[in-house]
Each structure stands twice: as C-alpha cells, then as structure tokens.
Amino acid sequence: MEEQNNNGQLQIELKEEVAQGTYANLAIITHSSSEFILDFIRVMPGMPKADVQSRIIVAPEHAKRLLRALEDNIAKYERVFGTIRISDESPIAPLTSVKGEA
Fold first, then answer.
1. pLDDT by residue (tens digit) across 41-93?
2. Which of 50, 53, 59 is nearest to 40 (CA)?
3. Half-sphere exposure of 45 (CA within 13 A, CB side)
4. Quick one: pLDDT band at residue 1, thresholds 50, 70, 90?
C-alpha cells in the first residue's frame, strides 16, 4: 500500500531481503495489448537449464517510462565512467529456442 506524507511525497520502503538484490544476466521481454512482462533469468555457464529469478509485469505506459529512465541513467553513467561497450553492437536476435514453463 502506498503511503504519502504531508508534503504529498510517496514514502518508499526497501525491505532488507529485497535490498540484497537478485543477480540476472538475461532478460526476456514479452507483451500483450495491455502489459509488458519482464523475466529476469540467471544463466550459469555449462548448465542446460536456467531459472527465472524475477518476473515484473507493467502497463505499456510504465514500460515506456522504464525505457526512458534507463536511457537517462545510462547516459549519466557513460558521462562519468565512459561508454559501455558490448561485444556485438548489432541488435540481439530473439531467442526462438527458449522454452518456458509456468
């Protein structure tokens, strides 16, 4: 539940177990007409199976806000630390061989 203080600001609580974070090195994004689903996965070298560590479901408007926030934060990061290099500058091909289980 959201709580707002007298100044109209949202107070956000970060619980200790959530603050630890979860490592993921792969994200799979799917969508419907009403939502975007972001699955964060940890792939371990040599392992034939990878587990979804976290699933986040957002409205399309929030997905676009997330995109803009990431672009803004990456630009700020690169101004301080330099360009983030990725091994292949071409777009990542969709993973057609990925099979999920619910």
1. 999 999 999 999 999 999 999 999 999 999 999 999 999 999 999 887 555 55
2. 53
3. 0
4. very low
Alpha carbons within 13 angstroms on the beta-carbon side of residue 93 total: 4
In eight-state DSSP terms, residue 102 is -
CA dihedral 50, 83, 75, 67 (to 10 degrees): -30
* 99: confidence class by pLDDT, cuts 50, 70, 90: low
Please report the sign of the dihedral spanned by the C-alpha atoms of residue 83, residue 85, residue 91, residue 94.
negative
Report CA torsion sign: 76, 79, 82, 88. Answer: positive
Name 37's bridge partners: 30, 57
Backbone angles phi, psi at 101, to 5 degrees: -125, 135
Q: Which residue type does 102 have?
A: A
69-78 per-position pLDDT tens digit: 999 999 999 9
